[in-house]
């Protein structure tokens, strides 16, 4: 099983802290894009330990209904504990993985696919959420989008990222003892939008969705009735709450979904930010035992 480069735990915080878009800190979209480009140049020219360039070719986007084929099976392989970087195939697109320190394969564990915001990274999300995952006993799979954001947002339809997430889940179910009733998908900002869309399309796989600061309409064609956690900062200047979650949540409730909805003020004055308390609530929701 691949492990991270020895410089991973130095490189990721350094690049993201100095140049990257930290999902726990407020930022403007334009400034974030400039920082992302600067970080990419730095990785290409200076830091050999940066994430490998994806080897797959971006296909011409083709219409997809967003359905996933991965299903929970009894694992035949093992998985390392703690924070690692994995790939489905050698040299392929990486994803962040966090496995709680008390994980054992003789118990089935809750698993969430955790999606980053525009310009961020899966490894960064896994790093940011690892302490919360450890506390709640939640396995985190944090993929990278192929483009700066997810295919549905970048291309207007499901394509390369849907396929990658499907294959990542198949890898995960081969390696991890997953609880089929506690497989979820979650994300922040653009990742929250994608989590809602992919989650509602696959409610027969995902029993729960976690949407931290989403802002888009919801799909008309849906499968299953997953429970939903949604949060939004009341003073979000990038994704105003009135035009986003305050519109989305009632639509989902009226459609028959159970929604745990949380609004919160930002201590920094810009609500495009997740507070530790809200992350704890969301991760606890995703990891909770069936029936609670």
What does this structure look like?
The protein has 8 helices and 8 strands; from the N terminus they run H-H-E-E-E-H-E-H-H-E-H-E-E-H-E-H. With 292 residues, the protein is an alpha/beta fold. Strands 1-2-4-3-5-6-7-8 form an 8-stranded mixed beta sheet, with helices on both faces. Helix 3 crosses helix 8 (276-287). It is globular, with a radius of gyration of 18 Å. Residues 1-56 have low confidence and may be disordered.
Question: What's the structural blueprint in terms of helices and strands?
Answer:
Blueprint: H1 8-18, H2 29-45, E1 82-87, E2 94-99, E3 109-115, H3 122-136, E4 139-143, H4 151-154, H5 160-175, E5 178-188, H6 190-201, E6 208-212, E7 227-233, H7 245-254, E8 259-264, H8 276-287
Parallel strand pairs: 3-4, 3-5, 5-6, 6-7, 7-8
Antiparallel strand pairs: 1-2, 2-4
């Amino acid at each position: 099983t691949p492990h991270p480069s020895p410089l991973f735990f130095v490189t990721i915080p350094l690049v993201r802290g100095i140049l990257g878009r930290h999902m726990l800190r407020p930022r403007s979209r334009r400034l974030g894009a400039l920082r992302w480009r600067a970080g990419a140049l730095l990785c290409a020219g200076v830091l050999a330990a940066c994430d490998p360039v994806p080897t797959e070719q971006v296909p011409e986007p083709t219409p997809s209904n967003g359905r996933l084929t991965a299903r929970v099976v009894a694992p035949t392989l093992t998985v390392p504990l703690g924070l690692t970087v994995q790939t489905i195939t050698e040299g392929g697109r990486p994803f962040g993985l966090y496995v709680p320190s008390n994980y054992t394969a003789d118990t089935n564990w809750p698993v969430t696919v955790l999606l980053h915001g525009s310009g961020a990274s899966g490894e960064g999300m896994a790093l940011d959420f690892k302490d919360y995952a450890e506390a709640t006993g939640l396995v985190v799979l944090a993929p990278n989008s192929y483009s700066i954001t997810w295919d549905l947002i970048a291309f207007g339809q499901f394509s390369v990222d849907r396929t990658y997430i499907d294959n990542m889940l198949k890898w995960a179910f081969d390696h991890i003892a997953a609880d089929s009733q506690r497989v979820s998908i979650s994300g922040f900002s653009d990742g929250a939008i994608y989590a809602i869309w992919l989650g509602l399309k696959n409610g027969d796989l995902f029993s729960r969705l976690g949407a931290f600061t989403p802002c888009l309409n919801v799909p008309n064609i849906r499968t299953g009735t997953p429970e939903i956690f949604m949060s939004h900062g009341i003073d979000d200047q990038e994704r105003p709450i009135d035009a986003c979650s305050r519109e989305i949540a009632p639509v989902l409730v009226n459609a028959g979904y159970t929604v745990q909805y949380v609004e919160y003020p930002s201590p920094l004055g810009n609500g495009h930010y997740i507070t530790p308390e809200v992350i704890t609530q969301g991760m606890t929701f995703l990891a909770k035992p069936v029936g609670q």
